[in-house]
Each structure stands twice: as C-alpha cells, then as structure tokens.
Structures
1.
Amino acid sequence: AQKITQTQPGMFVQEKEAVTLDCTYDTSDQSYGLFWYKQPSSGEMIFLIYQGSYDEQNATEGRYSLNFQKARKSANLVISASQLGDSAMYFCAMRGSGYSGGGADGLTFGKGTHLIIQP
Amino acid sequence: KAGVTQTPRYLIKTRGQQVTLSCSPISGHRSVSWYQQTPGQGLQFLFEYFSETQRNKGNFPGRFSGRQFSNSRSEMNVSTLELGDSALYLCASSFGQPLYEQYFGPGTRLTVT
C-alpha cells in the first residue's frame, strides 16, 4: 500500500517569491515514481514534474523542481519566481512500478495544497 | 497533438439511474485510467485499461465498470446511481508503463439528485 501526505492545506505567497510545497510518502515498493500535478479551478489536472525512485538527480522542468530526499521519503515541489497564474491546488502522487509482483495500482494522491499567489 | 477529451463535461442524473462517461486518450497512448474526485475522499483510483484489458482496479463496488475499445477510447459506467456518486470523474491516458506520466482530461462533473 502507498500513502502520500501533504501537510499544508493552504498557502499564501507573494508574487515573485519561491514556494516549497511539502510531500512525504510511504511505500514498500523498491521502484516507484513520484508525480506533481496542478489543478486550477477549472478542474483539469496538469502534469508538472516526475521523479523516479532510482533517479540520482532531482528533476527540473522550467520553474518547477522536485527536491527528492529518498531517505526521508520526501518529494517537495519547489516553484521559483511564483506568478499569479500559479494559484491552484497542487497534488503530490505516487505509483509503484509493479515489478515486485503485486501489480501497479493507479496513482495514489495526497489531499493537496491550495496555493494562492498574492500580487 | 490533441489532449485527452472527456464527454460529457457535465451531467445531472437521478438516484437509481445509470450513466456512461467517455474518454478519448492522446493519440498513441494505450493506457486509460479513471479517477473519482470528491471533497471528502479526494482523488481515488477506479480502474486502468490497457490494450482493451482491465489491468488494475481500485476499491470501488461492482456498480462501477469500464471498458476499452480497440482504438484505446474508454468508457466507464455507473449503475444504480447513489447520491454519493456525485463527483468529478477524471480520465488519464499514458503510453502504458506504470512509471510514465499520466495526462488528464478536463473531467466529467456528475451530479446525482
């Protein structure tokens, strides 16, 4: 079984500041992937960034980076130079590879963090 | 390249009725997954289809079912609707390997009265 914990229900951040969204996970899988998604008020889930459990370098995608600390089981999302359009719900998710024989279930999501960027 | 499309976008049904939702994946993607999102339970995995076969299933009652066609399009069906089935139903497509990113559609918002 997998579990994702996001401890920040809501955050207010000033425009142009960097923001870190926390995510911790628990899994018995040796091989797994960690994902971050953005969900604006429109409802669509937008894929932001992916980190594999065996990737040695932290993933980066434009203004998004994932601070992966495997020993601490954390996968925090960092958004540099925040913009008003970054206001949305942010979900951390994970999925096992299924190579352990138990099959790969779908994505397990955290409860999300509601990020509001203030001008 | 066109994204994931879902129809209809909004739906209002009455308790006891059944409903069918449709999802067309990104061209070339062979895996389609379905998720239910509610304020109380958050995002929960329903099932995944790959090459017309259900590959994984979440912890939902048998009233929830799905299928996938040879062109990778997928449908999910909910029979004997209950008030608690009111939710945003999201479809996601991917190439198929578990650790590949999934791309989501805009969702179908189902209201059961």
2.
Amino acid sequence: AQKITQTQPGMFVQEKEAVTLDCTYDTSDPSYGLFWYKQPSSGEMIFLIYQGSYDQQNATEGRYSLNFQKARKSANLVISASQLGDSAMYFCAMRTAVTSGSRLTFGEGTQLTVNP
Amino acid sequence: GAVVSQHPSWVICKSGTSVKIECRSLDFQATTMFWYRQFPKQSLMLMATSNEGSKATYEQGVEKDKFLINHASLTLSTLTVTSAHPEDSSFYICSARDGTGANVLTFGAGSRLTVL
C-alpha cells in the first residue's frame, strides 16, 4: 500500500524567510512520482513541483525546491523567501506505477502561515 | 497551461434532492478524470475514477448508486449526488491528467455542496 505522511499540521514562518515542509512516503514500487500542491482558502489545488523516483537531481521551480532523500523516503518542500501569499494548506502526494492512471495519494496536509 | 473548469463552485440544496457537478477540460482531452472529496481541515480522498465511454471505477466505501459519474465525452465528466443528505455536505473537486511528461494532475476549483 502507498502512504504519505505529513507530520506538521501547522507551520509558521516570517515573511522573507525560508521554510521546510516535511513529507515522508512509503511504497514498495520502485517507480513513483512525488508532487506538492498548494491549496489556498479558495479551495483550488495549485501544482507546485514534481520529483520522479529516478530523477538524479532535486527538483526546483522558482522559490520552490524539493529536498528528495530517497533512502529516507522523504520529499520535503522548501519555500525560499516566503511571501504573505504563500499562506495556504500544502499537500504532498504520490503516484506509483501500481496505481491506475495518475491517481494520487495525498498526505494530511500542512497549514502554512506567513507572518509579516 | 491545462485548465479544468468545475461548475457550480458552490451549491445549496434541500435534503432528498439531487445535485449535478460538472468538470470540463478546457484546452485538452481527458480520457480519465478523478473525483475527490474533502471535508474541512482534512485531506483529499479519491472517490472514483471517471473513464470516458465506460463505467467509473469507485473506491472502496463509495456508494456508486449515490454518486453517479458520467464521462460522456473527452472533455466532460459529471458527478451527480443523488438523494443528498446533510452528511454529503463537502467540498468536491475534480482533476484530470494534462498529458505532459510529468503526468501532472490539473484540478478544478472545486464545488462546495451544502445540504440542508
């Protein structure tokens, strides 16, 4: 079975500082993809970043980077230079080759609050 | 980029009535769409996988006769909540694979259902 764990229900960060949101996963499938989504209070799910299990380098997308540690089965999201607009719920998700199509398994989420 | 449109964004209905939610891929064809349900402060839970031209695949515990899914075209999937009850009140969100190399799921903006 696939499982995603986000152990931080809530995180606080000062504006302009960096923050790391934790995510660990469990799967026996050697081929998988890891995703991070942002969900503001409006409810929409915004794709942030993707890391494939065979990718040699950590993924980066602007202020977002993914600290992928395969041996530890962790895929932490790092947000640099936090902005007030980064306040939202963040979900880590996983897709494996075993699951059909592109269905994702989501973690419980982390509520990030950026303070001015 | 890929856009998924979901309508209505919010709906209030009386107990016992049926509600239809539409999910459209605006600039790409989606043979598969996914329907998720999200309760307040919780993660997204996959309800069913909608397949164009065939029956939907429901997750364990999801009543297929209550949550009717129709995927009649490559750009439209509908979820009908039949004989809605207050416990069906939730945030329903659809998604589709946009066909890019990363198989990123693009989400609609969600539909907030309140059953009185």
3.
Amino acid sequence: EAQVTQNPRYLITVTGKKLTVTCSQNMNHEYMSWYRQDPGLGLRQIYYSMNVEVTDKGDVPEGYKVSRKEKRNFPLILESPSPNQTSLYFCASRTLGSPPYQPQHFGDGTRLSIL
Amino acid sequence: GENVEQHPSTLSVQEGDSAVIKCTYSDSASNYFPWYKQELGKRPQLIIDIRSNVGEKKDQRIAVTLNKTAKHFSLHITETQPEDSAVYFCAATRRETSGSRLTFGEGTQLTVNP
C-alpha cells in the first residue's frame, strides 16, 4: 500500500529537549516536505526536499532542521523545542517530472505538545 | 512568493444546499490549483485539482472553476451531505522549478446540517 508514515503520532515533551519526527514514504517520490498546521493559519511549509541531499526552507523554517540522506526518509528535527512549536505536523511527498502536476500524499500527522 | 487567501473561514449550510468556497492567489505564474479535504483528526486528502489551461472541472457533486485573469478559483459542492462536513483547503503552485512549492489557503470549516 502506498503511504507516508510518520512517527510518533503524538508526543508531549519539555522545552529544550531535542526531538526527531520521522517520515518515510514507499512510493519512490523525489519531493518531500514538512508542514505545520495551526488553527486559522492553514498548512504552512517548514522545509522541503527535491531529492537526496537537496533541501530548502519553506515559509516557517526557524527552529527546525531536516535531512535527506535517503530518498524514502525525511526526518524533522527540533534541536531545542519551544512552546510555540506546539502544533500538528504533516509530512507529504509527491513525484516530480512528467506529468508535472502530481498530487501530494500526506502522512497521518504528528501532534506535538511542548511544555 | 505566492500568497493564497481563502474565504469564508467558516460556512454552514443545510443538507441539500450548495456550498461555495473562494480563493485568490497572487503569483500569476501559478498554474496548478488543488483542493484538499481534511476530516477531523485526519490528514488532508486531495478531492479535485485544476490546471491553468482549464477553466472548469467537475467530478460528480464537486466542481472547481478558475479565472486566471482575476487570479481566483472556487470550489463548488452541490447537494451537500453531512459527510461533506470538514475543513477544505485550496492551494496554488507554479510549474516545477527548483523552488516549486505548494502554498495553502487558511482553510474553510464547512458544516452541513442535517
């Protein structure tokens, strides 16, 4: 089954304690991205990656890091989490190339609470 | 960069009525406009999309229209049902480039009352 898998689904942690949210897709997609979703603000892109070892900032990259060492994985790293990073996070992937307008597939989301 | 505005933020209709959600975009180079539906506690799922070379697209009770000149596009749901209740997001993006990315509207909470 084609899917984007995020872990963990829920996490409550404290300020300053480094955490990583994993994302893995089994569709051989080149493009992967991370979004955060906050009430009234929609989905805002944090980082994206066009391929292995190619990453770029989205609209709200501050306080986050990513890496793309393998095509299937795109972890999101919060090195020193703060309460304003409490949010619902989605990983997404899609293919690139021809045809160019491929839809994104989203993971099930990770709800982070930072106290 | 692209900016997408979505209206209304909340919409309540009676079952069987039509619902219309509107979005405007700023980047005239944007040429792909998907719509996502997100049910409570679930991930966004694509329901319909339209390319800039098409003015209208329909899929059963759902249709999307695009006005490139005015830079706005709309989602139309006819004969609404309670299961249509969800948050709907519009989005816009330009053709694949090294900086290509999808920009989302703020979302519309649609409630269909039985």
4.
Amino acid sequence: SQQGEEDPQALSIQEGENATMNCSYKTSINNLQWYRQNSGRGLVHLILIRSNEREKHSGRLRVTLDTSKKSSSLLITASRAADTASYFCATDVIGGGADGLTFGKGTHLIIQP
Amino acid sequence: GAVVSQHPSRVICKSGTSVKIECRSLDFQATTMFWYRQFPKKSLMLMATSNEGSKATYEQGVEKDKFLINHASLTLSTLTVTSAHPEDSSFYICSARDRGVGQFFGPGTRLTVL
C-alpha cells in the first residue's frame, strides 16, 4: 500500500501567496521528511520532523505533524517563483531498520510570477 | 551539510550494454546507501538497500541479477544495470544515510537506453 500520499497533486498560485501541501501516511513512523525536487534534478532535503514533534519551522517553511491523524502539512509562506518544484513527503517507518524512506507521489507546485 | 555525489549525471547507452553508476558520500561515512528509481512524473521507488561489506537487500520486484549493487567502502556504492533495455531508461537516485542527521540524496543519474 502507498505510504505517504501528498495532496494536492498539483497546485498553482500567485507569487507572494502561501502554499500548503498535505501528506498522509498509513503506518507508525520514526520521522517524516519533506523534500523538494526541481525538474530533472535530484532531491533536496527541506525539513525533518520527528514523531514526537508537532511543528517545526525553517525559514519560510512550516511543517506540522499530527500522528493521531497520520498526516503532515508543509506550508511555504510568501511564495516565490523559485519555489516552483515538486515536493515530496517521505516517511521513516518504525521497525523498518535500515530500510530506505517511502515517498509519496509528490505535489507539483507552480508559482505564477 | 552532508554531500552525496553521483557519476555520471547522464548516460546514453545501446540496448544490451551494461552501465555503472557511482554514488559517493563526500564528507561522511555511510554504512547504508539506498538506490531509488524514479519514473517520469511519478514518485521514487526504493530499489535496494546497500550495506557496506555485505550483500544488498532488494525490494520485491527488483531483479538483483539485473541491478547489481556493490557497496565497496563506507563512502562508495555502485549500481550496475546489466544488459540494459529501453524500459530501464529512468532517473536513478542514490542516498546515503547518516543516522545522526538523516538521509542525503545524490543529484541523480539520467539513464537513456536506445
């Protein structure tokens, strides 16, 4: 089953607006991470939130985690054209040992100048 | 922050040939490295987990004889796509795990098999 489902699949907003992306998952996790990927490029780690944390900030990014609902959100405030990219959430599953992360399908964010 | 490199960044090969992709952690030791595959407009799929000095663990559905993984040292893992076919064309991404701070990804390798 898919672990880590982002919604919306695509989001287009005007520059300066806030962008919110959501991620849901199915099993218990150690942590949840958000990554960004520009077209045709590798992933860039944005932020990691542990299962015992509820909210985390990094610059214009704000991530929340609700383990009771098995969901997370990524908020980008005051968006810029350069924020245009795909954003993925990835879960580090409890009991997964050294297993890799499980990624969702991603949200493609377009910031209109 | 931790840096992971991949080489080559882009490779085009003929059907039937083998291609080797290198993944290196540049400023930290990674006992575990991971190989992912990404199809166009789709999410990443974990292919295998590579532990230094031992055999790789492959995910269900991934052919271990086709995708050979060698984790030669704490800073180097290689993925060899053997007898490549056009359907192997994809974006391959490696990552290296440092348990203290998380998992860091390489820039990816675009493989095109003609």
